[in-house]
Amino acid sequence: MTRPAVPARELGDLLRSRRERLQPADVGLPPGVRRRTRGLRREEVAQLAAISSTYYTVLEQGRDVRPSRQVLDALATALRLDSTERTHIHELIHGAPPAAGRAAAESLPPAVLALVDRLDPSPAYVTGRRWDVLASNRAARALWTDWPARPVRDRNMLWWTFADPEAREILVDWPAEASALLGRFRTAAARHPGDPGFAELLERLHAVSPEVRDWWPRHTVTPLSSGSKRLRHPVLGELELQHLVLQLADDPEQKLVTFTAAEADQDRITALLG
C-alpha cells in the first residue's frame, strides 16, 4: 500500500496533537457526558472549522489531499494555532506562507479563556480585530446569542448586530449601538489596510444591511469606550449593564468586555443560568 505523502502525514499528526490538547471549554463547547476521547472529538473540530467530519478525518489520517488555504485558516482558528503554527501548515501543504495581506488567524491564550469562564455569572466576551467573538461565557451567551452554535464566519459582533433580526430586539438602543460599532470597525479597518478580511466582512454587511449602505459613506469613526448598555431579554425583561473594555497586553486588537449589573438584576441573571 502506498504511504501518504510526508507533508500530509505531518499535517495529520499536527492536527491530532492540537486536537488532543484542547478541552471543550477551551473553545466554548459543553463538556458532554461519557467523554472517552482525549481532548476534542474529530466532529467537534470539524464543526468549529465548518467542514465535514469525513473530510477532517481524512486530513487527520494523513491522506494525500491538499486542503485549500481557506480550510487551513479555518482549522488554525478552530484548533487555536498560533501564528507560527498557522504559517507552518500553509508551508507544509502549499509550499509558502499565507499571503502577506491576510493577517494571521486569531487565537486566545488558555489563561484568557479561563478568565472569561470564571467571570460567570457576570457576562464577558472577547472580540478580535474585526470583532469576531473569540470567547464568551454562559452569561454573555444567554443575554446576546449562542456564539459557538453559529457558523464560524457568522461569529462576529457586526454581523450579528446588522444581519440578525434578534439583535434589534435585544439591543434596546439598537441604532446608537449599531452606528457606534460600525464607527469602531472603520477605525480598526484603517489600521489594517492590507487585510482582505475587513473588505470581505464589509461587503457582506453591505449586501444585507441598508443601514450599513447608508452610514458607511458618512466616514464616522468611533473610539473604544466603556459605558452602559441596555439589553432586552425574553425572560428577564430589560436590563441595564455597565461595561468595561480592556485591551489584552499580548494583542491590543483583542478586547475583553466585561459587564456588571445592579444587584437585583445580577441575581436574576444568576438564577437564569441555574
TrEMBL record:
Domain HTH cro/C1-type: 14-86
Superkingdom classification of source: Bacteria
Cited InterPro entries: Cro/C1-type_HTH, Lambda_DNA-bd_dom_sf, MLTR_LBD
Any matching Pfam family: HTH_31
SMART domains the UniProt entry points to: HTH_XRE (SM00530)
Name of this protein: Helix-turn-helix transcriptional regulator
Organism this protein belongs to: Streptacidiphilus alkalitolerans
